[in-house]
Amino acid sequence: GSLYDSVMKCDVDIRRDILENVLLSGGNTLFPGIAERLQNELQDLCSSRVRVWAPAERRYAVWLGGSILGSLSTFKEICITKSEYEDYGPKIVHRKCF
């Protein structure tokens, strides 16, 4: 599936917010023109405004976010075991993290 397909699977009430806040992260997003191409391709599929953010530090954004999450005092409380996931499925994420 594509990014567009994933957005369309989300609740209709949050799709606009998602499409206005597409945040690129990781090394593969450093290809020249990727942000503009994604912006144009999504805009062609959507009637609402699309905004793609491509911060300069995106190469390390995932690592940085993970390191911040891991340093939180509440980190152990939001960890999900394999057993919990098998018992509750994806809903366990909402139960423990939100």
List the helices and strands and how they pair.
Blueprint: H1 3-8, H2 15-19, E1 22-23, H3 34-45, E2 52-53, H4 61-71, H5 75-78, H6 82-88, H7 91-97
For the record, the CATH architecture of the domain at 1-54 stands as: 2-Layer Sandwich
Strand content: under 5%
Distance from N terminus to C terminus (CA atoms, Å) equals: 26 Å
Number of strands: 2
The portion of residues assigned to helices is 40-55%
Protein name: Actin, plasmodial isoform
InterPro entries: Actin, ATPase_NBD
Pfam families: Actin
Keyphrases for this structure?
98 residues, two-stranded parallel sheet, mainly alpha, Nucleotidyltransferase, domain 5, globular, Actin, plasmodial isoform, 53% helix, 2 strands
Explain how this protein is built:
The protein has 98 residues and is mainly alpha-helical. It has a domain of 54 residues: Nucleotidyltransferase, domain 5. Helices cover 53% and strands 4% of the residues. It has seven helices and two strands. Strands 1-2 form a two-stranded parallel ribbon. Helix 3 links the parallel strand 1 and strand 2. The protein is globular and about 40 Å long.
Structure, briefly:
By secondary structure, the protein is mainly alpha-helical.
